[in-house]
Amino acid sequence: MKEIEEQINDPNIWNDQARAQPLFARQSECRTVINTCQELDRGLEDILVYSEMAEEGDESALKELNSEYEKILSFLEKTETESLLSGPYDKGGAILSVHSGAGGTDAQDWAEMLLRMYLRWCQKSSFKTETVDISYGEEAGIKSCTVMVNGNSAYGYLKGENGIHRLVRLSPFDSAHRRHTSFAQIEIIPQYDDEIDIEIDPKDLRIETYRSSGAGGQHVNKTDSAVRLIHIPSGIIVQCQNERSQHSNKLTAMKILKSRLFEKERVEKEKKLNELRGEHKDIGWGSQLRSYVFHPYSLVKDHLTGFETGNIQAVMNGEIDGFIKAFLVKR
Predict the structure, then answer these.
(1) What is the set of domains in the chain, with CATH numbers?
(2) Which residues contact 57 (CB under 8 A, 6 or more apart)?
(3) pTM of the prediction?
(4) What digits encode the pLDDT tens for the residues 155-172?
(5) What is the DSSP string of 52-84?
């Protein structure tokens, strides 16, 4: 931290943004580590003090001891999970996309349930979210949705959620109330970093504008401010309709497009590397990540890590930290 502060105190640093930004990012990382260690130290000191007081017969100190112990245990658990975030883009933001799959209205309803689950988790984890595009189902639920998740290490925590999520339940959309299986795909990619240089030839890009759609109300635009970008060589399509300004929507859509192109290139390189190593990994719709069974019993099971829980309501309310840590530990 002292070495970084010496460089930041250099008056010429403000004239060189390319040098300054990584230094400020590194300073923030160092400060987080220092604060974490100091908080653990304070917690341990409090535990020792309460322990001595409890041994002398102070019953109120015993209650404080138990409370402090649970608090520091929870903090330590969170710190251990954070220490597993060692990927090159783990510290940055994420782009979360939800796509309904096979199962018609049930699948669209399932996609909306998953979106709610992740938004709840983001809220509890103090991550800011911004829905940039959403396509609603005809009867219920959503067909697709794209959300920008902003905050330190958002991508690192969410990257293990990539894959197919399977739901088994008694369908509320079936008059006979039979059991249905529905699927939705979750896609997590890192947000585009300005340090990553991706050039897009204007000739490879088709730009379309259209009127924003939504559930109705005053926030639905009356002008063609929504933007759709089509990258012809890759076939990648990106839409943004959350801003009232067409220019702002275009900037956000371009950021997402660059992120998708970068991720596509990264996955292709990783696939080639795995082939050279003799490894085989299923990517996309063929890899079922997790099953959520509402009937005939309650169970959420991750097929990659083996982690499971019977408290399905807690999971749907955003309690997915156990799945996240299990993935990071396995990696």
Answers:
(1) 2-82 (no CATH), 90-331 (3.30.70.1660)
(2) none
(3) 0.78
(4) 999 999 999 999 999 999
(5) HHHHTT-HHHHHHHHHHHHHHHHHHHHHHHHTT
3-class state of residue 138 by DSSP: coil
310 touches 299 (CB < 8 A): yes
Tokens 């699927």 belong to which residue? Answer: 183
**Structure tokens belonging to residue 275:** 């082939």
Spatial separation of the C-alpha atoms in residues 76 and 81, rounded to whole Å: 9
Residue type, 279: E
Q: How long is the chain? A: 331
The span from the CA of 234 to the CA of 29, in Å, is 36
Helices marked H in 278-318: 312-316
The answer to whether the beta carbons of residues 4 and 30 sit under 8 Å apart is yes
3-state SS assignment for residue 40: helix
Query: Which of 187, 113, 170, 149 has its CA nearest to residue 294?
Result: 170
DSSP label at residue 196: S
Residue 280 pLDDT > 60: no
Angle between helices 17-55 and 59-82 in degrees, nearest 10: 150
